[in-house]
Amino acid sequence: MSFESGYWSLKAGPVIGVGGMYATENGLGNIVSIAAQVPSTAERQVWKISVVEPKEENIFTIVLHNDGGTPGEESWSLRDKFPVPHGPISTSEEISQWRITRADNGLPSSHPIISIQPITPATGGAWFVGTEGDRLVIIPFPIDVEQPPVWQATPHHN
């Protein structure tokens, strides 16, 4: 079972119990952070995750769901466009693509566990979206971590 397009909140792993920290938008051009899901942040934590058309397996865009708010789209993006991805994740009007795969062996779940990777021409390694402090960053694997970072996707119903 592959990941499905929709409106999702993304809880940073390890995913255990209730609570947690969620990917949070901080304005166009700013770094995406993680924050608790409370009324003041909740609307900035819903992302429209859409499969790239024509349908490419596991390739998606991640755009803030603004629910009719500010015009324009705020897409997850890498600040620097180097062949080997690095640095923080920020929002941009330029739409970027990401590889999203199920990390829970495709088990049926309304809250799937996923990994998120930048699309890159680089070879010889793998890079994943994870956290460093309260920021979303690119983490090389397997060099810096024992297990790739994961996220729990929680559906948001419009």
From TrEMBL:
The keyword Zinc does not apply. InterPro entries: Prot_inh_I48_clitocypin. GO terms for molecular function: cysteine-type endopeptidase inhibitor activity. It holds the Pfam family Inhibitor_I48. Transmembrane segments: none annotated. Keywords: Protease inhibitor, Thiol protease inhibitor. Homodimer. Belongs to the protease inhibitor I48 family. Binds and inhibits cysteine proteinases. Inhibits most strongly papain and cathepsin L, more weakly bromelain and cathepsin B while it is completely ineffective against cathepsin H. This is Clitocypin cysteine proteinase inhibitor. It comes from Laccaria bicolor (strain S238N-H82 / ATCC MYA-4686).
